[in-house]
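Appendix C: a fully annotated inverse folding record. The material below is reproduced so that readers can follow the format used throughout the book. The structure is listed first as C-alpha cells, followed by the designed sequence.
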C-alpha cells in the first residue's frame, strides 16, 4: 500500500467524509451576507473554527478542504487551523485551483485555471500542513454542452494538477462537476457525466497519475434543476452506480460525492440509497459544503457567540451524512436530535 493510498483511505474510512470549507472570500461573503452577518476575516475564522472544534470532527470528518486564507490563520487558542483539524484525527486539505474562467473557443463554457506556479504553491501548502488538495472542473450541460473542447481542456488540466500534487506527496481530489443547472433528464446527465469521467481517467493515466492515491469527487446522476422529471432515490442510486462502474477504474480507492445544489436532506438521502445499493469495491462517501454547513450557518447567524449550539447543529448533520455513507441513515433519525 502506497503512502498516498493510506492517506486517501484515512480520509474516507469508517464512514468518514470530507467537509468542503474551501469557499473563496467572495463566496463566503455572499453566504454571510445572506444570513446578515458581516463578512470579515474575524467572523469567517470564528464560524470555521466553531465547526473544526466540534465533536463530530473525530467521528465523522476525515478531511477538511480549506481556502488559502484559512490555512494560514491561527485560532483563538494560538493553534494554526491545520493543527486544530489534525488534533481531531482529521487531515487538512487545500483548494489549489484559481477558479473557472471563460474557455477560449467556447464562450458559454469554462476551464479551470491555476497550473502556473502550482509546483511552488504545493510545497508551501505541504509545509503549512496540507496532505490533500482539490481542483474543480465545471461542465455546463445542455443539448450541445459539454463540448469536446470543454471535456478535453478540463480533463487535461485536472490530470496535470493531479500529477503535480502526487509529486508533492499529497492526494489530489479530482472534481469534474457536471452542473445541475438546466432542463436535462437524468439519462442525459448519465451520458454526459460518463463522457466527462471517462476522459478524465484517460488523461490521468496519460500523465502517470497513481490512481490508488486519488479521491474522485463527482456529481450524482440527477435530472436538471429546471427539469420536469421527478425520479426516486432508488433511480438516482442506480444511475449513479452505473456511471461509476462503467467509467471509474477499480484501483480508485474512494469516491466522495459533491452535493451540487441539493438540500441537506436530499444529499443525505441519495448518498444513503447509493450505499445501500452499492455493489462495487469503492468507498462511497461525501465531500459536502453547503449540505454540511447550511443549517449550522443559519443557527450561528442568530448569535455568533453561541458556539455550543452551532456545534450541536453541525454535529447532527455530520452524523447523518456519515450514517448515509454506511447505508444506515433513515428520515426518522433526522427528528431525533
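Designed amino acids, in order:
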Amino acid at each position: 500500500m502506497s503512502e498516498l493510498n493510506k492517506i486517501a483511505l484515512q480520509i474516507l474510512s469508517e464512514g468518514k467524509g470530507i467537509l468542503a470549507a474551501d469557499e473563496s472570500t467572495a463566496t463566503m461573503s455572499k453566504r454571510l451576507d445572506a444570513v446578515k452577518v458581516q463578512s470579515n476575516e474575524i467572523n469567517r475564522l470564528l464560524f470555521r473554527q466553531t465547526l473544526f472544534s466540534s465533536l463530530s470532527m473525530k467521528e465523522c470528518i476525515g478531511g477538511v478542504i480549506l481556502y488559502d486564507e484559512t490555512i494560514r490563520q491561527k485560532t483563538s487558542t494560538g493553534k494554526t487551523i491545520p493543527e486544530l483539524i489534525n488534533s481531531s484525527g482529521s487531515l487538512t486539505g487545500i483548494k489549489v485551483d484559481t477558479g473557472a474562467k471563460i474557455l477560449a473557443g467556447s464562450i458559454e463554457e469554462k476551464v479551470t485555471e491555476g497550473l502556473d506556479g502550482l509546483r511552488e504553491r504545493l510545497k508551501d501548502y505541504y509545509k503549512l500542513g496540507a496532505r490533500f488538495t482539490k481542483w474543480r472542473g465545471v461542465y455546463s450541460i445542455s443539448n450541445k454542452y459539454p463540448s469536446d473542447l470543454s471535456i478535453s481542456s478540463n480533463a487535461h488540466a485536472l490530470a496535470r494538477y493531479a500529477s503535480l500534487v502526487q509529486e508533492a506527496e499529497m492526494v489530489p481530489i479530482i472534481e469534474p462537476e457536471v452542473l445541475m443547472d438546466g432542463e436535462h433528464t437524468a439519462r442525459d446527465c448519465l451520458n454526459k457525466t460518463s463522457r466527462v469521467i471517462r476522459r478524465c481517467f484517460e488523461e490521468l493515466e496519460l500523465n502517470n497519475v497513481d490512481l490508488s492515491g486519488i479521491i474522485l469527487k463527482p456529481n450524482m446522476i440527477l435530472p436538471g434543476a429546471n427539469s420536469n422529471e421527478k425520479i426516486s432515490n432508488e433511480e438516482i442510486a442506480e444511475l449513479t452506480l452505473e456511471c461509476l462502474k462503467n467509467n471509474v477504474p477499480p484501483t480508485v480507492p474512494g469516491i466522495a460525492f459533491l452535493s451540487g445544489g441539493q438540500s441537506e436532506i436530499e444529499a443525505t438521502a441519495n448518498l444513503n440509497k447509493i450505499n445501500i445499493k452499492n455493489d462495487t469495491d469503492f468507498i462511497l462517501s461525501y465531500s459536502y459544503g453547503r449540505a454540511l454547513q447550511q443549517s449550522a450557518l443559519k443557527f450561528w447567524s442568530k448569535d455568533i457567540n453561541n458556539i455550543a449550539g452551532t456545534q450541536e447543529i453541525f454535529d447532527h448533520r455530520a452524523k447523518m451524512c456519515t450514517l448515509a455513507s454506511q447505508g444506515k441513515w433513515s428520515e426518522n433519525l433526522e427528528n431525533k436530535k
